[in-house]
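From the pipeline queue, job 12 of 40. The input is one protein chain; the requested action is below.

Action: predict structure.
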Amino acid sequence: MTLLVAEIGINHNGDMTIAKKLIAMAASMGCDYVKFQKRNIDLVYTKDELDQPRKSPWGDTNREQKMGLELSWDQYADLWQYCQYVGIKMFWSVWDEATIETTATGFPWRPELIKVPSALITDKKILNAVRATGIPAVISTGMSDAYQVERAIDFLLPAWVLACTSTYPCPVGDVNLGEVVWLKQVCKSYPGMGIGFSNHSPGLVFIPAAIALGAAMVEFHITLDRSMYGSDQAASIEPEGVHRLVKWTRSLEEGMGHQEKRIQASELPVREKLRFNLPREELDL
């Protein structure tokens, strides 16, 4: 079955109630994972960047906005337990080496997967640190060319590679679902490596299309309401859309069938009715 990853990311806006509502929604709809983003603000951004003016619900600087969106490790532990309660798994994107170390050794539970965000798949230090954890890695390919993607795959040997365009929301002409087909060819040399698709379109059509092309994991941002504050909200899918998406995905999996032509059992009575016994010249089969 296709693994469905509902990315909450920072769409919780630093609010645990919103975070838990999103987790509960993803679990109730039948998603397999929720994914967050975790970073150490002072390691990911420079002081000059953090001191830049920026109006937000938390203040007037970039730092205040970033800190307002960031959940603590204690909050992550709470969310982890909540995921266990509602029956869904959890992992997160890691943006710095300290976060990677805590994920591997300091957090109470090791996640099944660890995500390298698109922005960092060319960062050797980050890839080395992720590789050292021994946790199966997921990478997305946004913002990188073919050579950079192939280098990252060869260096990290991730468990999953997700085709991705990093615009939020992504214009239709830039979705480039053909990358899923290209990744299937690239990853033939790496037995067991999974191919998937990371969606940044607020629409639903590209996700089942990616699955039909061979994506075995799909990642998509979710939100309670696209009008909420946040840079990722416009690229996210609201609850009704998630419901339809999961339903379509499971129907598509059932309908994909076999990669050969067979007479289906449901066709047999139709064949008996329509290939009636009149004199005719049959093909020599």
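Job complete. The chain has a mean pLDDT of 95.
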